[in-house]
Design brief:
Elements (H helix, E strand, L loop, with lengths): L13 E3 L2 E3 L4 E9 L4 H20 L3 E10 L10 H11 L5 E4 L2 H4 L3 H13 L3 E4 L4 E2 L6 H31 L11 E4 L2 E4 L1 H15 L4 H10 L12 H8 L8 E3 L2 E2 L9 E2 L7 E3 L9 H12 L29 E5 L6 E5 L17 H17 L2
Length: 382
């Protein structure tokens, strides 16, 4: 049998049904990104979008798919760039053949992300062309170059992060507060300015907390009255606790409440003895008196329960007396019903009774009379 030899060249075209198209047009998209909302970067963002739209539409071999652009977002985390992830998903679905982008640093500043996405897209036949470096992702020989260039982009991001941190350190050490809009305050010329309508709500929140209203009950009151948060949403327990514990409402400011250990993740965590904090006292006009604010902080940190405003108080001292030992509420209890019936205050009939408290049970009438006497003395002493 005679040996035969044939050369089978790759097919450059594609089939659409039964029809063969020798030189199909490429479905082309572009990706643009700027990391801040500053005017010069916004202009760069617009220029990138307009330029790529013009380039793709003017090429007869291209089919314009669209421009994917992330504005004001860092390139260190791909999953936090919605337009980038939308573009990757479109490429996976076969909607894109070629992606044009300005540079590797625009595509991403995380070495692992850049390399992994380039390799994934290469495996499904999607090309990325980096204009500044003048390289294509389809050539596997450039992996080493991409690793170096993307590492440089990542290092630039680290350097920017360090510079930003350094500038904040300088401000913090000088006690310079960088104000941000919060409920009750507007920011005018870099200073906190009280908003009277919102300040009234803040004072009412602290007054209710001082009366030991539960956080959930204060939230319910605000929502029933149609009062909205700064973002126009209903109040929640977390947002209310943030207000009650925020020192800015007493005119102070804590600098560096959070820290970001890893610039790649960009995740801020509470600064619990990680780095130096700075406390600026009397920085701006207060909304809440310092005595009220301090008293509310004690209530928030105490183990005793907030008063249950959903229940009607049957007796004058109901819900306001607490055991000094177990911190549960003191309840009325009848003792010696057959011989010497009397009423005492006992914590063992309270909610959360996991053990029997051995504390003394005072006589109810004795406590009530002492309370009335104290109140009368306070009112008589002007």
């Amino acid at each position: 049998m005679e040996r035969e030899f044939q050369v089978l060249k790759p097919i450059k075209g594609k089939y659409e049904g039964e029809n063969y198209i020798p030189n199909p047009k490429k479905k082309v998209a572009a990706y643009a990104r700027v990391s801040t909302d500053y005017e010069d970067q916004i202009n760069s963002y617009r220029v990138q979008c307009e330029e790529y739209t013009k380039v793709i539409k003017s090429n007869p071999d291209y089919i314009f798919v669209g421009i994917y652009a992330d504005q004001g977002l860092s390139g260190t985390q791909a999953k936090k760039r919605p337009e980038f992830m939308k573009m990757i998903e479109a490429a996976r679905n076969g909607e894109i053949d070629l992606i044009l982008t300005k540079s590797i640093s625009r595509f991403g500043r995380n070495t692992v992300d850049v390399i992994s996405y380039i390799r994934e897209l290469r495996e499904i036949g999607v090309e990325i062309f980096f204009e500044k470096e003048n390289i294509s992702s389809l050539d596997p020989k450039i992996d080493f170059m991409l690793t170096i260039l993307s590492s440089i982009a990542q290092e630039e991001s680290r350097s920017i992060s360090s510079n930003v941190k350094w500038s904040y350190d300088k401000k913090f050490k000088k006690g310079i507060v960088d104000p941000r809009r919060i409920y009750g305050y507007d920011v005018v010329d870099g200073e906190f300015v009280v908003i009277p309508e919102e300040a009234k709500v803040i004072r009412e929140i602290f007054d209710l907390a001082l009366k030991r209203y539960r956080v959930a009950d204060i939230v319910k009151i605000l929502n029933q009255r149609g009062i909205k948060t700064l973002r126009g949403a209903n109040w929640a327990n977390g947002s209310l606790r943030y207000i009650l514990s925020n020192e800015k409402y007493v005119g102070d400011a804590i600098l560096r409440k959070t820290v970001t250990p890893d610039y790649l993740t960009g995740r801020a965590i509470p600064n619990d003895n990680i780095e130096t904090k700075y406390y600026v006292k009397n920085n701006h006009e207060p909304i809440v008196d310092r005595e009220i604010f301090d008293a509310v902080q004690v209530i928030l940190k105490s183990k005793s329960k907030f008063r249950n405003t959903n229940k009607t108080s049957k007796y004058p001292l109901t819900g306001i007396l607490y055991c000094p030992k177990c911190h549960r509420t003191l309840k009325r209890q009848y003792v010696n019903p057959k011989t010497n019936k009397r009423v005492v205050l006992n914590c063992n009939h309270s909610y959360g009774n996991n053990y029997i408290c051995k504390t003394y049970s005072p006589d109810y009438n004795l406590v009530l009379n002492a309370t009335i006497k104290s109140v009368n003395e306070l009112f008589s002493n002007k």
